[in-house]
Amino acid sequence: MKILDTERLILRFQTTEDAEFILELVNDPSWLKFIGDRGVRTIEDAKNDILNGPIQMYKKKLGLGFLLVERKEDQAPIGICGLIKRESLEDIDIGFAFLPQYRGKGYAYEAAASVMAYGKDTLGLSRIVAITRQENHHSIKLLEKLGLQFEQLIQLPNNPEEIVLLAWNRQ
Q1: Are residues 20 and 43 in contact, defined by beta-carbon separation less than 8 angstroms?
Q2: 0.90 exceeded by pTM
Q3: Over the stretch 106-134, which tens digit does the pLDDT of each residue have?
Q4: Domain ranges within the chain, ordered by starting residue
């Protein structure tokens, strides 16, 4: 089901048919370095990850969840982007991840700008945050381009590492 549409991209709900792509994405070295190892090693693991993650969030929280990002020109899945509600954060946060061959082409910004507009205009959010590791300079730069600003370093439960919290607040 298509949720958002940009000049070059379609953002839609994930399905278990996306398992092969998700398996590749969550095992990408950048994902492992900046997001973490989810232990997804097989197509079956990826299907379960989709069912227990995005699909559950779609059902619980109207308008929230990581959407699959596809290129319009060839329907190639290139990444994920969306708004989620983590138990460990007070606010809704935006997240994104793209396969290496699709980075540096403006796709992440295009998808994330569309998601931010959706959060502000459709969902009426007055605050959107993002979290990332301090050394993830590319993500921080993209988040700042979207209008989020450094707010503080935080620690999530069961994680000793301090991570960056950026935020956008409606004026």
Answers
A1: yes
A2: yes
A3: 999 999 999 999 999 999 999 999 999 99
A4: 2-169
